[in-house]
Amino acid sequence: MNYEEILKELILQDERIVILTCENRIAIRSLPDKLKDRYIDVGIAEQSLVGIASGLALQGRIPIVHALSPFLTMRSFEFIRTNIGLQNLPVKLVGSISGFQSEGNGPTHQAIEDIALMRLIPNMNIFAPADNDDLNKCIKNIILSNKPFYIRYINTDPIIEHTSIVEIGKGEKFGGGDILIITYGLLFTEAYKTALLLISKGYSVELINLRFLKPIDEELIVNSIKKSRIVVTIEDHFSTGGLYSIICEIAIKNNLQINPLSINLNEKWFKPSYLNTILDYEGFSAEKIFKKIINKLGNNNGK
Length: 303
Prior knowledge:
Elements: H1 3-13, E1 17-21, H2 32-35, E2 39-41, H3 46-58, E3 62-68, H4 69-75, H5 77-85, E4 92-96, H6 114-119, E5 125-127, H7 132-144, E6 149-152, E7 172-175, E8 179-183, H8 188-200, E9 205-209, E10 212-214, H9 218-226, E11 230-234, H10 243-253, E12 260-263, H11 275-281, H12 286-298
Parallel strand pairs: 1-2, 1-3, 3-4, 4-6, 5-6, 8-9, 8-11, 11-12
Antiparallel strand pairs: 5-10, 7-9
């Protein structure tokens, strides 16, 4: 089942669920005509979208709102903070074209600070699946939870089959070794390819698909850092407030020393283009990541 089919099944089973959009149906193109009074479109008005969803949640509903990530997280930030976060309402915020998924769009349409913003909000949870398989295996539990969530929607094909969700907040680990690669979302595919390249050259690698940026799988991260010689974080996000910040916070909290390599956007927007071109130009392709890791290892006396 895909995302739309899962939503339709949940809606038929649970009368509390309501779908909202603001003239953006990327994730649910075939659903609106089938939902009738369980579907609301508010026009291009993200603040109203969040306000209406909050009101519905206060009446016992589970609103699932869909909008473009940059406008959902920035234009309506105060409404999310005050109406949803502070009241701990079970609204699910589904953001499309986050990170590099924005492709040909310029800075106004690039959500590369969304994780940092949503992390700041009390009670807010963050789910960033690696691909549509990861999304579809986790989304039902997330929707039916009583927690507010920001979801980085994705519809890319998987490079591997993911495990089913065990518990909200738990990551997914692959392999084992002293090169630790931690990532989430779209860039999991490039991280996985990078791990294969490293293994083919005789290196031992552990790869973590975090899935959840909040709550974070701190136990998994701490145990993996303790065994690592280098910690590589990969994300289509600014360096401040995202995965790199999270790992540094966890390391300090647990009195851990790390040898970090942070691959992120470092406070700059990416050049609009097709995805593969962006990955190569900005240094996020598996081949470019592999070279950065090898260079880092070389500066630390090799393998």
